[in-house]
């Protein structure tokens, strides 16, 4: 174990700063959100009979190791080391005060035996599974009601082997909603870093009803035609920092959510204080998305220094009649987009409904949105802003935006309706609903 310990210390030292037995996040990044705990107690999955041959099922080994961490409850927690090798396993839960550490060359691979996959209750803010009525399959790596949990390492891999699930979705043989790759519920003080996530059955990383979450230095990969493989989806969560990561998937790279129609309205937990920065990626859908499930509200989001290529939509705020909720104080800045169907889209007619019981009078409110310092190349349409007749989008600010593409009379640069706000230094010039301003720099939007 001595060599294992030295390699772990070297990796953590490269990531963070050590102070009094704790590792404190770099002040230039996610400072103060979650301290990185250094675990004196360290065990290996091999101590519990782990076999990394890619064929042996390691479910008992992972569950036994987590059980040991939970019940011995060592002061400062315990680190579970996964050495190089391919460790096939069914879904398993984590516990509090735990670090799951993947060495270089380590792979935790999900079994494709879907018949024995555990089922759990639907999220209360969704009222049912996101894809199918009823419950849903538990995420591959799962945590509920936890705190002080870290998933990190030396860029080892968590592989969901999602193709069997994608095919079930395509063939319409799913009985329940597909599992996420990693999900934390009702949890706090979570760090996910320096790991590769690939081929998730559904959404990749899903913190829901969580607070103080850091996701950084991760790589998330899935084929462009893999359905609903969102990268990172903070959902009804607060104080979340996502940064310095590469994401290439079949759906939105980062999507902030907060519940679905009447269920999200009743649950009433917003997503707030979300920071997204230095993300690079590619997708047939959106790079930075808000929604479409926003019924609990989404407030105080900052996304900056984003590089997107081969995209469907660069920046997408999306909601719908029946959602309710407030989308407010959203800032997206310093974005580069290369080769996209649309640069910017803010829409009030996106997304489906969980059932027929949604309230058509529950109209979303979208206001105080600033998008600035955006440069795009080979963008087919600059953008569209389509508010709702009975709930127009207000105080929308576009500033210092240049989106270059092949525009035709049948594909106008901008389309807008039921929106008010301002624009400065936008090329091509946006729709007339956004008041022009002669100021340099920020928009002048009346409050």
Automatic annotation (TrEMBL):
InterPro entries: GH28_Enzymes, Glyco_hydro_28, PbH1, Pectin_lyas_fold, Pectin_lyase_fold/virulence
Example of a GO MF term: polygalacturonase activity
Signal peptide: 1-25
Membership in a protein family: Belongs to the glycosyl hydrolase 28 family.
SMART domains xrefs: PbH1 (SM00710)
GO process terms (BP): carbohydrate metabolic process
Classification via Pfam families: Glyco_hydro_28
Protein name from the UniProt record: Polygalacturonase
Keywords in alphabetical order: Glycosidase, Hydrolase, Signal
Key word Transit peptide present: no
Lineage per the UniProt record: Eukaryota, Viridiplantae, Streptophyta, Embryophyta, Tracheophyta
